[in-house]
């Protein structure tokens, strides 16, 4: 099926606001900011990071590698984000968010994941963005359990939006049916609180 026809678009009204769930390729979205699930070195990688790097062109990697290291192989600490241009992407900016590696959940992972989402939203607000799209940060190679990550994503994004910019359009992007179901469930649970 054509990727455009295969998209699942769903809006869930959560406490008076709208957070969207979108199924498809995050690199094709016409939003102000897309979030990249980056590594601390901002040196490119696989998964969504690789897809974003490929779609943006070599200028994106060149831009991230120009960011000074704060210590060896670390340009952006876990729980933080750094903004670059979007280059060849439809999005004008990319927020490179570094989520935590899952290590049982007892090492501050939920707080660090929430911090990566908030940092991205703060950067988007700083460039007066009206829309931002997030992948499921840390759920790939970093091993964060998808259900727990979905709950952190929804709670953090909605709390930020309600406190800072009720009109910000936030899209949670899924590329597979399992992630769509988990995000839909997390959005529904949040809306019922």
UniProtKB/TrEMBL annotation:
Domain of life: Bacteria
GO molecular function: O-acetyl-ADP-ribose deacetylase activity
Protein known as: O-acetyl-ADP-ribose deacetylase
PROSITE patterns in the cross-refs: MACRO (PS51154)
Macro domain residues: 6-191
Organism: Rubricoccus marinus
One of the Pfam families matching this protein, by short name: Macro
SUPFAM superfamilies xref list: Macro domain-like
Gene3D superfamilies: Leucine Aminopeptidase, subunit E, domain 1
